[in-house]
Amino acid sequence: MNVLKRVFSDRVLWIAGAAAIITSFISPPQLTDINWKTITSLLSMMIIIQIYDYLDLLKYYAAYLTRQAKTTRQLIFMLASLAFFGAMFLTNDVTILTLVPLFYKITKNLKINPIYPVIIIALAANLGSIFTPFGNTHNLFLLTHFNLDINQFFVMSTPITIINFIAIFIVTRFFPKNKIKLTQLPSVELNVPSLTLTLMVTIVIFLGIFSVIPMWGSLVAALLLVVFINPKILQVVDYSIVLIFMCFFIAVGNINRDPTIVNHLSGLIQTKTGTYLASIVTSQFISNVPTTILMSKFSTYVHAIFLGTNIGGLGTVIASLANLLAFKQYRFYFKENTGKYLLSFSAINFTLLIILGMIGYFLIDIIPT
After folding, report:
1. Which one GO biological process term can you cite for this protein (predicted)?
2. pTM for the structure as a whole
3. Distance in angstroms (rounded) separating the CA atoms of residues 46 and 334
């Protein structure tokens, strides 16, 4: 019952469900509109990510790295780096859910304004998750929808990831070098045998995602692993993400059968530049996940969609689900100055959106895909 309550309390799911229902008046929905490989891949990854979370992998490295920090600047850079690289493998959402509470515990012993560190954690998680197909759920969709191989994907993701890390490094340089001494940090023990087994199953899932083996085999492997480690992990898997994708698949499929809408949208994204800019702008209003699904139905410029929707995750607080999650975490733990948080978030995010947006504009033509 708790699982159902959590799933159906997701506001984004209600919006996605409403979109699927409303667009069904345009055209009757069809099950063939759903990309089942994406759904299977997504469910497999959601399960394996929750296993890593259960095994406290990110918490272990977070506790270890932050203990090394001697100044405020070092602390923020370590948290940002961990968010950046952790999001590549554990998704930006899980990374934020892990690191923001950890930072809250740290602030109990230090006098640090939490607004900017939380913003930087969310920013780093968003920018780092671009690198892999499983860091961002819409990257996984692009991989399966366009049948990309591993080389094609990393040719797109590597240059912008390097640039993103440089951006994170520069942003953290603005923090002061105040001396700090961390105490009472959580002690975490790693279950090495379970982690080793999880890593092996993760490789199996990757093979399924890249079509080396059937994707259903990867899902079976993930289910067997979670039953072996702790079946209760299945209760905390974010099934709403899977349902959100299914609803958006149906909504976009319904739209795709209306000639008037198809002609209008196709006219807007006939070029790489048009697709890129439309992906960034649309993400600001409906977030980058539905934007990716929408653009992919009307454009074959995969690199432009990839860069547009990933860079488009910056900007407004609704441009990425991770942005909303970070805001919720800040409001839950720190409570005060939510208005200042949103203003600061917008200033930093829109500044980087403009800078990285211009860089992405040149990358879509420089790098062939």
Report:
1. transmembrane transport
2. 0.87
3. 28
